[in-house]
Every structure is written in C-alpha cells, then in structure tokens.
Amino acid sequence: MDDGGDLVTMLHQQRRDQLPEIIGGTEETTTGVIRLHSMEANGVLGYPIVAINNADTKHLFDNRYGTGQSALDGIIRATNVLIAGRSVVVCGYGMCGRGVASRAKGMGADVIVTEIDPTRALEAAMDGFRVMTGKEAATQGDIFITVTGNKHVLRPEHFEVMKDGAILANAGHFDIEIDLASLRDMAPDNREVRPEVREFALGGDRRIYALSDGRLVNLAAAEGHPASVMDMSFANQSLVCEWLVANAASLEKKVYEVPTEIDKDVARLKLETMGIRIDELTTDQKIYLESWEQGT
Amino acid sequence: MDDGGDLVTMLHQQRRDQLPEIIGGTEETTTGVIRLHSMEANGVLGYPIVAINNADTKHLFDNRYGTGQSALDGIIRATNVLIAGRSVVVCGYGMCGRGVASRAKGMGADVIVTEIDPTRALEAAMDGFRVMTGKEAATQGDIFITVTGNKHVLRPEHFEVMKDGAILANAGHFDIEIDLASLRDMAPDNREVRPEVREFALGGDRRIYALSDGRLVNLAAAEGHPASVMDMSFANQSLVCEWLVANAASLEKKVYEVPTEIDKDVARLKLETMGIRIDELTTDQKIYLESWEQGT
Amino acid sequence: MDDGGDLVTMLHQQRRDQLPEIIGGTEETTTGVIRLHSMEANGVLGYPIVAINNADTKHLFDNRYGTGQSALDGIIRATNVLIAGRSVVVCGYGMCGRGVASRAKGMGADVIVTEIDPTRALEAAMDGFRVMTGKEAATQGDIFITVTGNKHVLRPEHFEVMKDGAILANAGHFDIEIDLASLRDMAPDNREVRPEVREFALGGDRRIYALSDGRLVNLAAAEGHPASVMDMSFANQSLVCEWLVANAASLEKKVYEVPTEIDKDVARLKLETMGIRIDELTTDQKIYLESWEQGT
Amino acid sequence: MDDGGDLVTMLHQQRRDQLPEIIGGTEETTTGVIRLHSMEANGVLGYPIVAINNADTKHLFDNRYGTGQSALDGIIRATNVLIAGRSVVVCGYGMCGRGVASRAKGMGADVIVTEIDPTRALEAAMDGFRVMTGKEAATQGDIFITVTGNKHVLRPEHFEVMKDGAILANAGHFDIEIDLASLRDMAPDNREVRPEVREFALGGDRRIYALSDGRLVNLAAAEGHPASVMDMSFANQSLVCEWLVANAASLEKKVYEVPTEIDKDVARLKLETMGIRIDELTTDQKIYLESWEQGT
Fold first, then answer.
1. CB contact, 8 Å: D126 with chain B?
2. Which of C16, C115, C292 to mutate to test the interface with D (most CBs of D within 10 A)?
3. Cα–Cα distance, B5 to C72 (Å, whole number)
4. Does D264 lie at the interface with C, CB-CB under 8 angstroms?
5. Which pLDDT does position A292 carry in this prediction?
6. Which residues of D touch B125 (CB under 8 A)?
7. Residue C238 · residue C258 · CB < 8 Å
8. What is the Cα–Cα distance from D10 to D17, expressed in whole angstroms?
9. Which candidate, C1, A221, A285, places its Cα nearest to that of B176?
C-alpha cells in the first residue's frame, strides 16, 4: 500500500531485486496515480497496481470532504485566524480544491480560485468563486491554500506582491507546492512566531506567514482527515488487497481501477452505518432504462 | 442533431431507408446517450453518433447550472411560491439533480434527495442534504422535482402519503417521470387553478398540484436554459459537426465521445468571453508532472 | 393603509380637511416609516400611524425573504440571464439587501455589496461578500440591484465606467434609485430589446440594460412577493387596524410600533400553518432567566 | 469590566461596602445584560453599567462570527469528527445560534434549530433550517450545541431518546445549559475517552459524549474567539471606559447602551484595517432622506 508513490519509487530504484516477489500494490493519492500512469506509459512498472484513489468512494469523499474540513482545521489551529471576511485563495480546483473552496465559503470567506485547466476554471466560476491568475490572486488574498499536487505553485513572483500578513498553507501533496526555499532566501531572518507558523519579513514592511514549513497543514497542524471519511478509503484498500490475491494469476503489470462492485459495496456499507436507506429501481424502471424502443 | 433520441428512434424504426445517407449524428441529452449505448450494445446503431452530452463543457454546465436555475424559475413562474422555509424533494442526484438541489438550498429550502445509486446518495448526504427513500420523502416534501431520466419516479404509493398542497414538477426528461396517468385516475375531477398548475383533489382533504402536465417545467413554464449556458452546448454541437464531416471516412457505427481538444477549446473560449484569465503550467511544472523519478 | 407614504403625503398636502376624520393609519414600508418619523419630528403628523414595517414578522420576512426571491425572479423573467458565474452588485445591506445578496449567492453569483453604514458594511464583509464603494463596484458588476430607499444610488459617475452588457434593476423603493433621467440623456437613442429591458448604447461600444424603467423589478417584471410571505405583513395590517379602533381614545399624533403581542401572535400563527412546533420555557428556566442571584 | 455578571454579583452580595467607590462598569455578554436589567428593574443596581454586549459592533460580530467559528473549532479539536453528512442540532437562534447554524451548514451538516421564541423560529425556518421541539430533535441529532444562556436546555428527557454516539457541546454561557449532573446520575461509570470527551454509557447500548464537562467548548477545547473579532468588543470596552469617566457626574444607577458614536467609530476603524472603503451619502441623498414632501 503506497501513498504518493514513495514506496513504488524506492522499489523501482533501490530494490529492483524485490519486484518479482510482489503480487500487487495499491496507491492512495491522486499524485501517486499520475506518477504510476507515467511509469506504465514508459513501460517500467514492475507489478500490477490498483489506483485506490480513483474509486468513487475514495476521491469523491476523502479528497473533497476530508481535505475540505481538515485543511481549514489545520489553518485555524495553527493561527486561530477568523475565516469570515477574509479572501481565501485556493490554488487548484480538483476534488481537494473544491472541498477547500466550499468549506472556506461556508465559513464566510470571499474565495478566489486559480487553475490551469479551463473546464475546472469554468466550474469554479459557475460555483460562484472568483477565478483569476495566480499573479492577480497574489495581490488580493489573505490566506493561500495550495491543493494541486504540483510544485512551486506559489513562488517568488507571488511572494513579491502579496499583502502584509498573508498566510500560506499547503493541503495538496509534497512540501514543494510552496517554493519555501526561495522564500527563505528572500527573508533569511525568518522566525517561528507560534507553533507551525513561520514569519518571513520582506521589504516594505510586509510579513508573510508560512504554515508547517509547507508540509500538509491538515497532518502537521491538525489531526488529518476524520475517521468517518478515511473509513471508506481504507475499506477500498482492504477489499482490493483480497481482490489482488484472488486475481493474481490474471493480472498484468498495469495500473488497474478499483472494481466497481467493491466501490459500490463500500458506498452501500457506509450509507448503512449512517442509517440512510435509498430507493431501488422497480422492474418497470429497469426495463425502461435498457430499452431504446420506448419513448415519448 | 438529436435531443433525447427521438430522431434516432424514428430513423431506425420508420425511415430505415435513409440510414445509409447519414454521415453522422449528435445527441444532446443524458437520456438519449443511455439509449444510444443500448442500441450500440444491441448492434443496431445505423451511423456514428457523438455524445455531445458527455462533453465536460456540456453536462457539467448545461445540466447543472442551467437546469438548476431554470427548474426553480419554472416552478416560481407557475406558482409564485416562496422557496424559503419549504422542504424541496429532489429525485435524482446526477448533474441536473445536484444543480437543482444546490439552487433550492441557496434559496432557503430544506432539501431532501432521493437516489438509487449509493455513491451519489453518499455525496448528497455529505453535501448537507437529507437522503431517504422516495416513500419517506413523500410524507415530508412541499415541492417535488424529478430529474432522473427514468419513468414513474413519483407514483401512486407516493401520492397517497403526500401532504396537502404538495407541488410536483418534472425537470428531468420525458413527461413520464411523474405517473400523471395514475394521478388522474385517483382524482378525475382535477382542474387548472392557474396556467401550468393543475389541482388534484384526493381523499382526506388533500390536494396535490402538478405543474405543466409533467412536461419539463423549465421549458413549459419558463424560457428554458439561459443562453449563457446553452452557448457551450451549441458550440460543441457545431464544432462536432465539422469534425464528423472531416473524419467521416474513418468512423464506425458507434457512440463517440466529443474529442477532448474540442471540449477544452469551448471552455477556453467561454472563459475569454467572461473576461477570465487562468494560469499555464511552467516548464518546470510540466516536467515534474511527467516524471516519476522526482519525489519527496 | 399606506405603502411608501404616498397616501399620507396626499392627505397632508391636498386633503388637509379630511385629517380630523381619520382614527389612525398604518404604513407598510421602510421608506414610508423614515418619512413618517421626519413628519413627527417636524410636528406635522395629523393622526396616529402604526409602523407595520417595523414589526418583526414584517420587516424580517417580507423585506428579506420576499424581496430576496422576487427581485431575482423579476430579473430572470425580464432577461433570462444565468446568475451563476456573474458578479452581482447589491446596493444597500438592509433587510432587503441581505435577502437579495443571500439569494444571489445561493444561485452561484459572486456578490459585491455597497453601503453607507459602516456596521452593515462590516456585516456584509463577514457574511462573505466583497464590500467596496459604488464607484469601484461599477467597474466589476454584471448585474446591479438597488435596495436602498434612497435616490440616485446609480448615477452618471457609475454608468460611465460600467462594463458592456451591465444590467440595472431596482428592488428598493421609488423609480429614482437609478438615475434613469441622466442615463436617457447619455443615450437618447435607447430602445426596448425585450419587454421590461431597455438598452442604452453609450460610447466605446458599451451597452447598459435598465429593467422596468427603474421601477420595482419584482412588481413590474414578476408577480411581487409570494403570498406565503405577504400573509404575515397583512396579518399585522389587519390586527393593527382592530387595535387602532379599540385604542383610538388614548392615541396621540405619533408614529407607533406594532404591539409586541400582535407581532408574536402572527409568528405563532404562521409557524402553526407550516406545521412547526417549538419549545416552551420550563418553570425552572423562567426563574433562572429572571434571577440575578443564581450563577456559576 | 464584567463577563456574565459574576463580578457584579460578588460586589452586590459580598462586597457591598465597595459599591460607592465605583464610577461605572461594563458588561460583555448577553447573559450578563439580561441579569443587569433584572437588577435594574428590582432597584438594586449599585452603579451605572454599560451593556457592551448590545453594541452592534459587539453582539453582531463576536457572538455571530466568533462563536460560529470557534464552537465548531472546539468540537472538531475535541473529537476530530467530520461535520459533513451529520445532523447538527443548534439550541437557540440568537446571534450565537445563527452563527453556529450558518457555519455548520457551511461545513456540510444538516442543521436543526430549536427555539422558544416564535419569531426567531420562523427566521430559522426561512433560513433553510429545520425547526422542531428539543424532544423531536433529540431523536435525530448527531451533534448538539447549546447557545441559549439558559439552563438545562438538554436534560434527561432528551438524553433518554438520543442516538448512540450523540455528541453534546455547550457554546452558550454557563456549564448548566446541559444538565450534566443528571447525565452523570444516569451513567455513573462514565469515562474520559479522549481529552475533553467524556463517554456516558446508557441503557440499550447507547453512548453519549459530552464535551469539556459542559463548559464553553470554544474556550475549553479550542482557543476561544479569534483576535480579529474580539478586537471590536475590546475597542468598545476601552472607549466606553473613557466615556464612563468623562460622563461620571451625570450618570445614574442604570444600564446604559454604548453611545452610537463609539459603536460606529469602532466599525469605521475595523473597516479601515480590512482595507475596505465605503460610500458616503451625497448632499442630494441626505436631503431626500430627511424630506417627506418629495415623492413619487
């Protein structure tokens, strides 16, 4: 079981001798899955891996509702700042980003979204958020949250124009979403002003505050995702391991999706624990959906 | 260009002689695409068809933001009822359903969602809506909106337990989502009390109001989707027609997706008309995303 | 019964002979009550008048939830414009303004508020809206809605910097909130492009659209407030008339508030019709609230 | 400076000899002000006191946005529970209650409100919340938050019907809003399962979790209100102290409101620190507002 592709990278680079022993693997994150697809495309993947992250009951929930709550939780624990009335810039409008944007709005923020994908940018705009380039957003934000899985999303060109008091947090993946190395160069005399809060004094009386050294703020400054959302991710992990063993003989060295039956089973189980019952299609409705001869 | 598969059905049933003349077709709706896949699976599809509905710039926008606004618009025009403080039951949590649920909540309603898919039901619950069976919802709702693409989603077992004054509207597909035939049998002396509003007096002093005879309330009682969301759907239609002609030689009798380049082009164009500029990946970021050797 | 002080003005200016015949009056609107207080302060009020508008069951509901829904309803009926993704400028953050702002946000708009009162401006900011001067907002808005009760809230200095396609609507009081006379001077060749929509072509290829000639857009282009919110206002009107007659002997030529018993009765009655039951204080709790000797 | 009337009670009960030395006092909370009015009505108030809580820049902000965020913050820190998808019962819809309800909704909860005042109950319903008696809510809630300023809002009749796993938190005033003494009697073998979380095992395999022994959860389990909302409360405290000294000669032993000039000054100052500029009335508009002779 991998989280972000670290184990996979180590196995393929430093422990290639062990690759043949492995029946299969699983990967928990968006970032890791992107990496695995790159490995598969390059023909270097050494064993079958299931993209847990792509299960609906994982990425639609853990990434959205989990990160949405815990990223803000981390920021509040680190700073005790009031979200209401502040401009919150969310970099990235994937599942994590829309979770964070939605929760920040729900707490009274004016939310700005930055994106590189035009479709997602449009969705953000239609969801009521302001959408603009990172450069423009840098001048308007009070709190910046990166949720991209990429690197240097906030970098010197942004630090240079941010307002005094700007707060930077990462809730995406590695600690390179914010280019802290450059920020340290810009303000060598930075200091910790509160646990998890480092102050960088820049020119012109501007101070910028980076949380948790750019590591995931929900893990570093809070307790990570609530159990009641991780339960679904882990149920997928567990059931997929069983499935990998049972189907080992027929699997190739590829990236597999979580089987739909497992994904739906997890959803059904979760609803049950929440005391929620839902409808079933009537026979009549099933026939209707499968037919193309019935109509108006 | 088809909308709901009516043209396709007519061509395949009554005008089979014309099938060979057709280069290709397009389909605008979720319901139509379900039908086309059924035809393809049955090996009866007579020409290549592009599922316009599946373009991100179509179904993520038209279905969600278009239907979200126009369904409520239709209900308000038909009834002039105050949404705030009322329980609104949304049957179906696809793109249309989440649009309607989100807008009803935004207007102050207590929103209840019914679903047959467990994953969607979970999403609805995590989005803050109450989720329950149609039977339970029937006793609590003030306004019911069907957005399923299926038939008889509201039927006698529901009518029998609804509150006095319940309002029924369809914003899904055909006029069979609400089983109005049965409702007419239950209350033969129904009468129009306002344009687009028909009152059905049931036993026990209960009256139920069906809007627009169960036809799409946004088309029948309002003006349909705003131009500023249909523009994206029609841009896809138009660009895909060009593409069909250009690629006619190599296309099979299958259901095709809208080519990604066209889909993204439509998004980019739309952002431009809204005056929104977004970021581009730096060279550094592109390399990072494609690599699996860089890491922590 | 007066609405906006028109009847009162006519009686005091043109029919002073009738003043002695009048037992008492009522006034429905914020604007009218401001006017009555001015008359009372000037010592010119000719009979006792009850400020219906000030009843909690009136101004907290009719102004907020009624105007909130019906103003947007009017704009949509007049233009069929999509609210999602648009910048909506709400001028004034009184009860009407917060209703309109809340509903526009609920429909997916980016909402900007302008105010002259610093406390209300702060509330708007903490509620997640952007707050700025009218001059700044004029350059950013797609739709402008005036809800101030004042005059010339939108005027040439704003028209001159608005974007092409800006839509202007009034949901406040008189048709002078938008200075249409000046707009007509700026674009004498204006024309109706749709019922209730007048286009003003300004220099530099900019066109501005004014709805319903600046009259109340919810009355002119839609059906006004829903019955289920006006019922509370009219219940106050009716019960206060009884009260005026019963107490005629002891009333002075002043502006009176709606008696609290009447106001609370209306609320209780309304809850009952909505099928909502609420708690009552226990004896223990009543004693606790009245006491200052009990404590930590 | 008093918070909840504790100092005042001690002075009037145990240190009456010091009363003559006191120029004046201030009171920070809703609960304290209720108490002071009761003392004034009973003729026992020993010195002039200003109700800081009643300043708009205090109770509209501190109580609403401060408590809204910090109560949920406290609950999340104590339990790390996911708010999305849960039913949150908010007891009381005063300024604190509407803050908590709004933020819980913003985090994806299904929010239920209980009230004793019919007007507030109606507002809650129109704001989209479900309103019911405490007894009904007790069977439906996952998380209960008391914000009433009263005692025993949650008591045995509620504990008896709550679901397994229900969480109880107080964000109102004293630690008697939840009748924990009775809960302890019902489950003598209660135990701490996490810091700030006490488990009470009741009959039928039901366990209830009370946070922070019923004390204010935002103070006990989190850091209290953010500085950026308390600044306004304390600005009022500080400026009112100056005012008390300056006006000592003319003040009576009564409860005074914060002078409007001070209240508005605090709002203006706060806007300035947020970088927000607002409009001023034009001369023309001032004349219009003061006039009753201008009209349609």
1. yes
2. C292
3. 34
4. yes
5. 58
6. 85
7. no
8. 11
9. A285
What share of chain D in percent tops pLDDT 70? Answer: 98
> How far apart, in whole angstroms, are the C-alpha atoms of residue C130 and residue C111?
7
To the nearest whole Å, the CA of A174 is away from the closest chain B CA by 6
Which B residues, 214 through 233, put their C-beta within 8 Å of a C-beta on chain C?
A: 222-223, 225-229
Search chain D and give the residue with CA nearest B107: D128
The residue-averaged pLDDT of D159-181 equals 96
A229 to chain D: which residues are within 8 Å by CB? 82, 84
pLDDT tens per residue across span D52-105: 999 999 999 999 999 999 999 999 999 999 999 999 999 999 999 999 999 999
Give me the residue from C76, C108, C223 closest to B73, CB to CB: C76
A71: chain D residues, CB-CB within 8 Å: none
Only one residue has tokens 């939310």, namely A111
Residues of C within 8 A of D103 (CB-CB) are: none
Residues with Cβ < 8 Å from B86, sequence gap 6 or more?
B109, B110, B142, B143
Interface of A with B in 61-80 (CB under 8 A): 61, 64-65
Structure confidence at residue D31 (pLDDT): 83
| ipTM of the complex in this document | 0.92
Q: Are strands A191-194 and A197-201 parallel, antiparallel or unpaired?
A: antiparallel
C7, two tokens:
């009847």
Q: Under an 8 A CB cutoff, do B271 and A121 touch?
A: yes
Give the residue ranges of chain B where pLDDT is below 50.
295-296
Residue of D182, D227, D288, D197 lying closest to D62 (CA atoms): D227
Note the Cα B263 to chain centre separation in Å. 19
Residue B128 is nearest to which of D110, D122, D125, comparing CB atoms?
A: D110
Q: Which residues of B touch A278 (CB under 8 A)?
A: 114-118, 121, 131-133
Q: How far apart are CA C129 and CA C122, in angstroms?
A: 10
Q: Which residue has the higher pLDDT, A31 or D287?
A: D287
- Beta-carbon pairs below 8 A across chains B and C: 77
Q: Which residues in chain C have Cβ-Cβ distances shorter than 8 Å to A127?
A: 84, 108
> Does A47 have pLDDT greater than 90?
yes
The pLDDT averaged over each successive group of 10 residues in chain C (296 residues) is: 91 94 94 90 95 95 95 98 98 97 98 98 98 98 96 98 97 94 96 98 93 97 93 96 96 97 97 96 91 53
Is the CB of residue D226 less than 8 Å from the CB of residue D252?
Answer: no
Residue type, B120: R
Phi, psi torsion values for C151, nearest 5 degrees: -115, 150
pLDDT of residue A4: 86
pLDDT tens digit string along A56-75?
A: 999 999 999 999 999 999 99
Give the closest-approach CA distance of A67 to chain C in angstroms: 21
* Torsion angle, alpha carbons of D91, D96, D97, D98, to 10: 180
The sheet carrying B110-114 orders its strands as B130-131, B110-114, B87-91, B143-146, B166-170, B206-211, B197-202, B191-194
Quote the distance between the C-alpha of residue A278 and its chain's center.
29
Helix axes B95-106, B118-126, angle to 10 degrees: 20
Is 0.90 topped by the overall pTM?
yes
Residue B64 confidence (pLDDT): 94
CB contact under 8 A, C110 and A126: no
Which own/partner contact pairs does D282-290 have at CB distance under 8 Å and 24+ positions apart? D282/C152, D284/C151, D284/C152, D285/C150, D285/C151, D285/C152, D285/C153, D288/C150, D288/C151, D289/C34, D289/C149, D289/C150, D290/C38
CB pairs under 8 A between A and B: 164
Is A115 within 8 Å of B279 when comparing Cβ atoms? Answer: yes
Q: For position B102, what pLDDT does the model report?
A: 98
CA distances from A226 to A66, D80, D81, D82, D83 (A): 7, 6, 6, 5, 9
pLDDT digits (tens, 9 = 90+) for A239-283: 999 999 999 999 999 999 999 999 999 999 999 999 999 999 999
